[in-house]
Amino acid sequence: MIPFNRPPCTGAEEQYIKQALKSNKLSGDGPFGKQCQSWFESNLPARKTLLTPSCTAALELAAVLTDIQPGDEVIMPSYTFVSTANAFVLRGAKVVFVDIRPDTMNIDENLIEAAITPQTRAIVPVHYAGVACEMDTIMAIAERHNLYVIEDAAQGMMSSYKRRALGTIGHLGAFSFHETKNYTSGGEGGLLIINDERFAERAEVIREKGTNRSQFFRGMVDKYQWVDIGSSYLPSELQSAYLWAQLEQATEINDSRLAAWNFYAHQLQGLSKSGRIELPTIPTGCTHNAHMFYLKTSGLEERTALLEHLKSHDILAVFHYVPLHTAKAGAEFGRFHGEDRFTTSESERLVRLPLFFSITEHQQQHVINEIISFYE
Ligand SMILES: *Cc1c(COP(=O)(O)O)cnc(C)c1O
């Protein structure tokens, strides 16, 4: 069976984890944790970055930082992972879903402004497949209406929009290091990216259970105490050790994924040109990280048949999000603003092909051959 995903591993992870074990410092913000954060701060670059146990945790931290209150509204696409919405619903917010663009599956920036009400506090663009949302338009809307922008860049590490790294454009951004993403910190992990100076100090406090412990460790206060609301949002040093091995080879991993992505795109061009399938669009000004290779079938029935065909030839291809507004909790905690022209219909056509760091050309060729034979 060709799996859909395999967690990335460069080979150095084991050595760094052993090193962390020997150091007798296993909790968060140890040497590997700090090294990873410095890497992001200088390479993205970003004002400040904080490793978290997941992207979900980073989004929750962002919701606390932006002081989201019961009754506030937060605008986002419905075609996303549950955590994008949950982070704000946990603060009592109402989620307002806006339709997506069929070309990138990202929020349609031209529909956002009409969804704004006096209760709106934030916009949460999700960079689907590591391809950027139209951030200039989104940032201009946010500025006009005095809203926060929190980028769900869970899939977006190493991607950019007009030469700026995803996650560094909004007031706050979040990455995921879950094993299904391009880089992992041993299965679970995330990063909060702080671009707005106003959030830098409070973010550390909320992440450290609402204490000023980080300042204490830097010698800025002589004892640490409870100063704010907070939770435990630090990953362990073992997770950071795993991640460090991946950051050292960030470019190699990215190049290898891009090569695999381009191979699919090239080999499936014929089917796309003849109109049998649709392939992803990368808007000009965007560089992507090959997080995902998807194609679109003519509709739901053809998709089901294609997935079955691939499965019967030992290939695990998968569909993706069930739009949140069509789910039980989505109806309870959110509302869809305007017409669902593309969210549901486009999500029903989408098929994700196996793509991971160690995928071989031989495996990819088998996938390609079976897609072509399905359409013959
Ligand atoms: C993976 C993902 C998340 C959640 O990431 P975790 O690290 O598993 O919490 C959130 N949003 C999007 C768009 C994702 O793809």
From TrEMBL:
The active site is at K181. The modification N6-(pyridoxal phosphate)lysine is found at K181. PANTHER family: DTDP-4-AMINO-4,6-DIDEOXYGALACTOSE TRANSAMINASE (PTHR30244:SF34), TRANSAMINASE (PTHR30244). The keyword Membrane does not apply. GO terms for molecular function: dTDP-4-amino-4,6-dideoxygalactose transaminase activity; pyridoxal phosphate binding. Gene3D superfamilies: Aspartate Aminotransferase, domain 1, Type I PLP-dependent aspartate aminotransferase-like (Major domain). NCBIfam families: ECA_wecE (TIGR02379), PRK11706.1 (NF008687). Keywords: Pyridoxal phosphate. Belongs to the DegT/DnrJ/EryC1 family. The keyword Transferase does not apply. It comes from the Bacteria. It comes from Marinobacter pelagius. This is dTDP-4-amino-4,6-dideoxygalactose transaminase. GO terms for biological process: polysaccharide biosynthetic process.
